[in-house]
């Protein structure tokens, strides 16, 4: 059966009530918890690190999907996996030795993903697609939540899916940025397996119902 996984982005959660929001996600049909880590250097924003990861590990009951939007991610991978990350994704644009970084993640017992910014071509995946567990396609420019979805993403999903099938890769395709009830089904139809949703979930009057609807 085709994957239709939803990964609510904790960047949009209420950090004054993070335990409450995590308990809501535990009850919901959400599949993963998406954790955006920003360093203020690779992207123009700073988010959270290990103290928040500790809270997520204490109260979250779902698969933990960590997206490192940082320079030199290899310096922090071990700590994030020890802090509870089940999957760690690093940017192609930030990783000088991408194969080595992906191998490090997998050797430490986590799944490894690679991320492409909106302007980075899918061709950059050619030499790594057979090794990774996931490809994360950014559908907004990374750094801030609440941005408008970039329509060219559908084309990139199709290109990535074609490469995965051609190379007999088992990688999942994840989409992050501007995902909502209007485009979720189209993204799944294009070949996506996992959708990251931030504002669409946490700004909703009924987040649990919104997660259900995103999966349809």
Automatic annotation (TrEMBL):
Q: Which GO terms describe its molecular function?
A: D-ribulose-phosphate 3-epimerase activity; metal ion binding
> What NCBIfam families does the entry give?
PRK05581.1-4, rpe
* Transmembrane spans: none
Gene that this sequence comes from: rpe
- Record's catalysed reaction(s): D-ribulose 5-phosphate = D-xylulose 5-phosphate
Q: In which pathway does it act?
A: Carbohydrate degradation
- Keyword Zinc among UniProt keywords: yes
- Report if keyword Protein biosynthesis is assigned: no
**Which InterPro entries is this protein grouped with?**
Aldolase_TIM, Ribul_P_3_epim, Ribul_P_3_epim-like, RibuloseP-bd_barrel
EC number(s) recorded for this UniProt protein: 5.1.3.1
Alphabetized, the UniProt keywords read: Carbohydrate metabolism, Cobalt, Isomerase, Manganese, Metal-binding, Zinc
Q: Which GO terms describe its cellular component?
A: cytoplasm
Q: Which cofactor does it need?
A: a divalent metal cation; Co(2+); Fe(2+); Mn(2+)
- What's the source species for this entry? Planobacterium oryzisoli
Q: Bound how, and how many: what does the cofactor note say?
A: Binds 1 divalent metal cation per subunit.
The residues annotated as the active site are 36, 176
**Family to which this protein belongs:** Belongs to the ribulose-phosphate 3-epimerase family.
Q: What is this protein called?
A: Ribulose-phosphate 3-epimerase
GO process terms (BP): pentose catabolic process; pentose-phosphate shunt
């Amino acid at each position: 059966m085709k994957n239709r996984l939803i990964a609510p982005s904790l960047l949009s959660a209420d950090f004054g009530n993070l335990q409450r929001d995590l308990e809501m996600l535990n009850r919901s049909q959400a599949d993963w918890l998406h954790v955006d880590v920003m360093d203020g250097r690779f992207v123009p924003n700073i988010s959270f690190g290990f103290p928040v990861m500790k809270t997520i590990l204490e109260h979250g009951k779902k698969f933990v999907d960590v997206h490192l939007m940082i320079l030199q991610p290899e310096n922090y991978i071990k700590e994030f996996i020890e802090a509870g990350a089940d999957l760690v994704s690093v940017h192609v644009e930030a990783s000088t030795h991408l194969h080595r970084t992906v191998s490090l993640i997998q050797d430490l017992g986590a799944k490894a993903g690679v991320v492409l910014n909106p302007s980075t071509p899918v061709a950059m995946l050619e030499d790594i697609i057979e090794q990774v567990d996931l490809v994360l396609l950014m559908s907004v420019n990374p750094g801030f939540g609440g941005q408008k979805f970039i329509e060219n993403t559908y084309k990139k999903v199709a290109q990535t899916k074609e490469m995965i099938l051609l190379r007999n890769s088992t990688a999942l395709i994840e989409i992050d940025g501007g995902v909502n009830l209007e485009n979720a089904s189209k993204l799944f139809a294009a070949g996506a397996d996992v959708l990251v949703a931030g504002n669409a979930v946490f700004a909703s009057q009924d987040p649990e119902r919104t997660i259900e609807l995103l999966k349809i």
